[in-house]
């Protein structure tokens, strides 16, 4: 269609021309004879272009205000300052709105920063507007969940393509998260020599990791009063909601005070009591147990849309200061580079506002969700590979039920991005890792990864494969779960506690964390045992060595040391 003329006498331009796949192995096309007749709607996000030079200056400013020792450290930006620096011109936004008006579209919302326009319109209108075809797809992972996606390339008139980077939520298939490792109950009690902390939640959680185990391992305090303005959040998607009954049962068993103080988006407690919302209960119970008194917000979206989520976060009047997100995908599954680039810019905007974002690094080792192949390459995780979020990997106790030395969890995500370049703030640590791994003869074949990419994770915490995390779910069922989905909310809670130290002294929040982390690598418990090989024997992975490594980052948090640095 490119080069032809539409009814507005403007040449049509194919958008995201590097995309040639319009299906997913985990989504089945649904035959829907009344798809258009019923005038079902689709929601699309028009992402506006931003000036490349403005974005570069914005990135440089973020590094300056996020680096300890800089005279501008902690001078976070207000929304109006961000808008002045990188927001598209109002004239460009108006051009998009005029375009929508030509099709009679009135249901739209311009983002706070003028960089996106969220549109809801009939399927037939969307097909005409974008010169494409939509179909309905059903998830093979979660029955009953459907989405509407295009089945062929899409186009925009040249004058609109000049101001629009791409249209989101019409092409990419959401990653329907499969359940994290779940161990129903436990088969053995604590053996002689086990640490008493493992029995701190009662016999239902015997052998499981508990809040007391984490406190003994990482040394964080029990907070009874939050500093004014402190806050934290977890993100949930795809039916992962929460119920108060299980939070109460968990608090009673573990002597904690986890609680939800604010909710954005839907929540259905009855649904969780019947089906068990494992992911959400894990996130809420453990970030709440670690950071107790700090107000917790849950942000829920039906579909896993990073752009929609982060847009909501930065548009809030008072966004929570720390966010834990236990969802992701492989870089190779993101469909186009433009999408990852836009997400990265949004993460930068959040960091510039003093917001810390932490993501789980993934539960499939170096091979990612795409899987292992002896002739292929590693599949780095996204958004864990973004330089502007903090990626949290997974560890295990070396001796079961003993709080002590930890090893890399062999399924914990880690490696080097194929898309994001290696940032300056980690170059010396990455170089040191390569030198040590080469000398030890444990570096994987060079063809398997991009040595010049952003290395991740940045740090790690217990993933719970050896001693699963004790949670309450499904109306009082106690069970063990595992994964970096457990590691991320724990580390997020610890950084919320560190924010409390700063805020109590009248200092600003920590914001984008990575420059601080890489300046204070000695404030982590080094993990130098294990390999992240996706649990596959006979396949290579990255070894955990001294200092930073792409298996566990700098290791696990040492709270007292970190608190002395903030």
Descriptive overview:
The protein has about 575 residues and is an alpha+beta fold. The protein is about 30% helix and about 20% strand. The strands form 9 sheets. Strands 11, 12, 13, 14, 16, 18, 19 and 22 form an 8-stranded mixed beta sheet that branches. The chain has a 4-stranded antiparallel beta sheet with strand order 4-5-3-9, with helices on both faces. A hairpin with a 5-residue loop joins strand 4 and strand 5 (about 115-120).
Which residues sit in consecutive blocks of at least 5 with pLDDT less than 50? 1-6
Please give the count of helices.
15
Secondary structure: number of strands = 28
- Whole-number mean pLDDT: 92
How many structural units, i.e. domains?
2
At the fold tier of CATH, the topology name of the largest domain is Rossmann fold
Give helix % range. Answer: 25-40%
* Fraction of residues in β-strands: 15-25%
* CATH secondary-structure class of the largest domain: Alpha Beta
Q: If classified by CATH, what would the architecture of the largest domain be?
A: 3-Layer(aba) Sandwich
Distance between the termini: 57 Å
What's the gyration radius in Å? 23 Å
> For the record, what is the CATH homologous superfamily label of the largest domain?
Peptidase S8/S53 domain
Q: Quaternary arrangement of the chains shown?
A: single chain
**Class derived from helix and strand content:** alpha+beta
Task: Based on Cα principal axes, name the global outline.
Answer: globular
Largest sheet: 8 strands, mixed
